[in-house]
Design a protein that fits this description.
- The chain has helices at residues 3-25, 32-36, 39-49, 73-83, 122-137, 155-166, 187-191, 196-202, 215-225, 245-250, 261-271, and strands spanning 29-30, 64-67, 143-148, 172-178, 181-182, 185-186, 206-211, 232-237, 257-258.
- The protein is α/β, with parallel strands linked by helices.
- Helix 1 (3-25) packs across helix 4 (73-83), helix 3 packs parallel to helix 4 (73-83) and helix 3 (39-49) packs across helix 9.
- The longest helix is centred in the first third of the chain and has 23 residues, at 3-25.
- It starts with a helix and ends with a helix.
Length: 272
């Protein structure tokens, strides 16, 4: 990744975070923490890594993104708005009556969303099916899937992982948003997952642990993963609420929170 390209992506992440903050604030409260933590990965995917066409969102053979941790839908919506899949004004309709932007992603409502998600564990299962279909069609598409570390408490995640390695899905790249917190506590206190990198490796994945906010590091891991004969799991060491000091400090309480107008302005100042 060139220095110039890296600076562009960093600035893009700041702008997307601002959109995200205003989006969730418009509905009163929402999933700030877990949405902010995956912005950098989404910005990298949609602006550098994925083979997509905003003017042909149903293009055959396109790469696809499955946001298995569906509660972070606002982050994906902000990126889709930035890319031009949806109008930025639509972000302010988040989770409101007759919206096309429900709190959890719906492929039947939102242009650019590749899979409906919400119930934890089901998104990665869909991603496995999509990767198998791509293999059958031989369309050379990559299927990217983002799961939460708390979501990894779900047995269905590991059923999908076993299937991925059994079917040798080297066109599947899974990102684990490893912010080490979930809805009402730390991962360690609720259900300690042990060594996340070794766990995915033991299920037959090529696995790489990275700084989840360093887009160059993430990009290198993606490119290394594409050279493997195995499915890839990239462990994103992230900060819940990344980019806004007081949301980061809120820890797991940022999973669902509200901001006053003053706090919103402070959050945007942080990003500036």
């Amino acid at each position: 990744m060139s220095f110039k390209e890296g600076n562009f992506l960093k600035e893009k992440s700041k702008e997307v975070r601002k959109l995200l903050l205003k989006e969730i604030h418009s509905v009163g409260k929402g999933h700030y923490g877990g949405s902010l933590s995956i912005v950098d990965t989404l910005v990298l995917l949609y602006n550098k890594e994925m083979n997509i066409d905003v003017n042909n969102p149903k293009m055959e053979g396109r790469d696809r993104l499955v946001l298995s941790k569906g509660h972070a839908g606002p982050a994906l919506y902000a990126v889709l708005a930035d890319k031009g899949y949806i109008d930025e004004k639509e972000l302010l309709t988040l989770n409101k009556e007759n919206t096309n932007l429900p709190s959890h992603c719906d492929m039947n409502k939102t242009n650019g969303v590749d899979m409906t998600t919400g119930s934890l564990g089901q998104g990665i299962s869909c991603a496995v099916g999509m990767a198998i279909a791509s293999k059958i069609k031989n369309d050379n598409a990559y299927i990217y899937c983002i799961v939460g570390d708390g979501e990894c408490n779900e047995g269905q995640v590991w059923e999908a992982a076993m299937a991925s390695s059994a079917f040798k899905l080297n066109n599947l790249i899974v990102f684990v948003d490893y912010n080490k917190m979930q809805l009402d506590g730390t991962l360690k206190d609720i259900l300690d997952m042990g060594d996340m990198e070794k766990k995915w490796e033991s299920f037959g994945f090529y696995t790489k642990s990275v700084d989840g906010h360093d887009m160059e590091e993430i990009s290198k891991a993606i490119n290394k993963g594409k050279k493997q004969e195995l499915p890839t799991a990239i462990i994103l060491n992230t900060t819940k609420g990344k980019g806004v000091s007081f949301i980061e400090e809120a820890g797991y309480k940022s999973h669902s929170m509200g901001l006053t107008e003053e706090q919103l302005n402070k959050a945007i100042e942080d990003l500036n």
